[in-house]
């Protein structure tokens, strides 16, 4: 026990020293120097291969375990400078983590364009003797070679062919003619055989090292087949527990949204999944929670004395959370027409962001403590959403999209006002807006502050003629994408001579007004962290799940149910026969004019003439 604790402390000290050296761009003791600038991608890999992870085990208190120790080796590489280094498994590993990912729906766009590239960024640079295995499973009739060819165009192009080939050699495709085990188990039997063989090989080669075998089942599938696949994962792909074995095992399940179509279907889905996996092993993924600026919200709010005292109803006029897309639904017409913008974006992505803004400080960063506070913030948003607090729109030409029903009333734009009854935010509207085929692509959070009491902008005593007006309101803006940034818009004196400082005759005035403009205190990520490669949202979330078993940035079942309770009445009212049609708006516009009117009615003041300089 003493020796294990000493090794843990020593590992922690090595990690802290490495982190300090990395921040100073200095060589790390015991590791080869990194070529060029240390990127965030390097830092992510180094963090997960050299750090000592802390894991909260709520039932047993706080437990520290030594995880994922790797030794960096100098290897010749054709990769450009500043990219991820290769890692090799040392002979004297204290702990070996063997990860097998079974990706259901492997032939779909989500799996090919998002999930597999994220797995490559986590494992593609590793030379760890085959500790990683990716099994793709779907109903599409294709071979492993065909699947690999479909993956290659979406993998990074700035790495050498040897690295790509090595990663793809760990990818195997197995066709499942049907997902329902009652229709046959041959495909699942093949999956199980490959998993068992891979793990048996790793255990045989590990020597005296401590082994952890992890199986991650990733559901890139429609929710209506979750039940069949989850049942098969538990019955056919999960090894029986062996108390006499020294090998540690875990099985985890990642579910992609949507988590049901309404509260009733979400509860039914939870019941099916919960019959086979405990809640601690279920990871409902919302990729917005993995975005760099969204995951920064906790640090911004609770690690800075400046913001915590003023983010409340006494100082904030309103909170505006916007996701604008300049593309239409494209090939997703069939899916989108049965879903709509509220279910696709607002009820999950933007609502998660709203709760991160509204939540109180958690007692710790353990997953349940963070998610408890988010749930409290969600419950404080008073259901149901009132009809007067909603604007629904549909872009011109949507109904002619392939897969869309003629005469469809599915909204492609929505603006929704949520009202909190919490002591911190009572009276402050949270406005969530999202739309497709708009004038630009951006996602941002705007926290607009109230004007100061009284003003020096108008002269006293009043002067004849036009009076200067404020340039706009102070705002804290978190730009999630693109051009990630955090900036504070504030009122300052306009540079130069003020036209109101003199009388027409040139005599000085005893009282005068100050001409003002808006400027910003700006943290622009591309300028401040130039050359830094920010991890993709899926990469971040997969690392949390695989390496740490950390579900802080995943969605808990009680949050899903409460979110549907908030939006179900509004959705039901908009979908009944005879319900009003969404307001039409032109492609490339800001959306329906009624949306701007709703936002203005809630007290939001648009800045006139201000343009943020990217």
User: How big a fraction of the residues is strand?
Assistant: 15-25%
Task: Say what the CATH topology of the largest domain is.
Answer: Dihydrodipicolinate Reductase, domain 2
Query: How confident is the prediction overall: mean pLDDT?
Result: 77
Rg on CA atoms, Å: 27 Å
Number of strands: 20
Shape: globular
Walk me through the topology.
Blueprint: H1 2-23, H2 40-50, E1 54-57, E2 61-64, E3 71-72, E4 87-88, E5 95-104, H3 109-123, E6 126-127, E7 132-138, H4 144-151, H5 161-168, E8 171-175, H6 186-205, E9 210-219, H7 226-236, E10 248-256, H8 263-274, E11 282-285, H9 292-295, H10 297-302, E12 316-324, H11 333-337, H12 340-358, H13 367-380, E13 390-395, E14 413-419, E15 429-435, E16 442-449, E17 475-481, E18 485-493, E19 516-524, H14 525-528, H15 537-548, H16 557-575, E20 583-585, H17 593-601
Parallel strand pairs: 4-6, 5-7, 5-9, 7-8, 9-10, 10-11, 12-15, 13-20
Antiparallel strand pairs: 1-2, 3-4, 12-16, 13-14, 14-15, 16-17, 17-18, 18-19
Helix pairs in contact: 3-15, 8-16, 12-13, 12-16, 13-16
């Amino acid at each position: 026990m003493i020796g294990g604790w000493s090794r843990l402390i020593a590992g922690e000290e090595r990690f802290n020293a490495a982190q300090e050296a990395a921040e100073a761009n200095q060589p790390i003791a015991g590791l080869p120097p990194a070529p060029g600038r240390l990127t965030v991608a390097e830092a992510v890999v180094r963090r997960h291969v050299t750090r000592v992870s802390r894991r909260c085990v709520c039932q047993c208190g706080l437990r520290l375990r030594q995880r994922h120790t790797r030794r960096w080796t100098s290897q010749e590489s054709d990769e450009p400078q500043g990219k991820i280094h290769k890692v090799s498994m040392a002979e004297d590993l204290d702990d070996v983590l063997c990860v097998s990912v079974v990706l259901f729906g492997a032939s779909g766009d989500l799996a090919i364009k998002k999930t597999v590239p994220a797995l490559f960024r986590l494992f593609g640079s590793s030379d760890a003797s085959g500790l990683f295995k990716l099994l793709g499973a779907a109903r599409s009739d294709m071979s492993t070679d065909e699947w690999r060819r479909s993956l290659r165009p979406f993998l990074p192009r700035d790495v050498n062919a040897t690295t790509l080939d090595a990663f793809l050699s760990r990818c195997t495709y197995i066709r499942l003619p049907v997902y329902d085990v009652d229709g046959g188990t041959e495909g699942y039997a093949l999956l199980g055989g490959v998993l068992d063989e891979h793990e048996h090989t790793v255990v045989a080669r590990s020597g005296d090292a401590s082994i952890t075998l992890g199986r991650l089942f990733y559901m890139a599938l429609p929710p209506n087949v979750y039940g069949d696949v989850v049942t098969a994962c538990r019955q056919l792909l999960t090894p029986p527990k062996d108390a006499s074995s020294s090998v540690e095992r875990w099985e985890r399940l990642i579910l992609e949204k949507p988590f049901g179509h309404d509260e009733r279907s979400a509860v039914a889905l939870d019941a099916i999944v919960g019959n086979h996996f405990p809640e601690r092993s279920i990871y409902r993924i919302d990729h917005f929670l993995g975005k760099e600026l969204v995951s920064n919200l906790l640090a911004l709010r609770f690690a800075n004395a400046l913001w915590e005292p003023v983010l409340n109803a006494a100082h904030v006029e309103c909170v505006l959370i916007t996701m604008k897309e300049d593309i239409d639904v494209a090939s997703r017409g069939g899916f989108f027409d049965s879903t709509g913008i509220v279910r696709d974006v607002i009820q999950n992505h933007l609502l998660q962001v709203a709760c991160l803004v509204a939540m109180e400080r958690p007692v710790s960063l353990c997953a349940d403590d963070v998610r408890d506070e988010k749930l409290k913030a969600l419950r404080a948003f008073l259901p149901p959403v009132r009809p007067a607090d909603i604007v629904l729109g549909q872009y011109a030409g949507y109904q002619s999209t392939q897969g869309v029903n003629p005469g469809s009333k599915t909204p492609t734009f929505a603006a929704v006002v949520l009202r909190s009854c919490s002591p911190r935010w009572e009276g402050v509207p949270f406005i969530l807006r999202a739309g497709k085929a708009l004038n630009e692509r951006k996602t941002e959070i705007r926290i607009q502050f109230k004007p100061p009491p009284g003003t020096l902008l108008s002269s006293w005593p009043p002067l004849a003629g036009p009076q200067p007006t404020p340039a706009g309101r102070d705002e804290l803006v978190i730009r999630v994408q693109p051009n990630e940034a955090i900036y504070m818009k504030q009122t300052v004196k306009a540079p130069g001579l003020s036209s109101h400082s003199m009388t027409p005759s040139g005599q000085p005035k005893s009282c005068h007004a100050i001409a003002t403009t808006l400027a910003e205190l700006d943290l622009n990520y591309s300028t401040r962290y130039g050359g830094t490669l920010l991890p993709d949202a899926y990469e971040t979330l997969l690392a949390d799940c695989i390496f740490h078993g950390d579900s802080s940035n995943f969605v808990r079942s009680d949050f899903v149910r409460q979110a549907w309770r908030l939006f179900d009445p509004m959705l039901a009212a908009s979908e009944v026969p005879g319900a009003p049609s969404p307001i039409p708006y032109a492609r490339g516009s800001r959306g329906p004019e009624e949306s701007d009117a709703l936002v203005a009615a809630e007290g939001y003041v648009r800045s006139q003439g201000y343009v943020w300089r990217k």
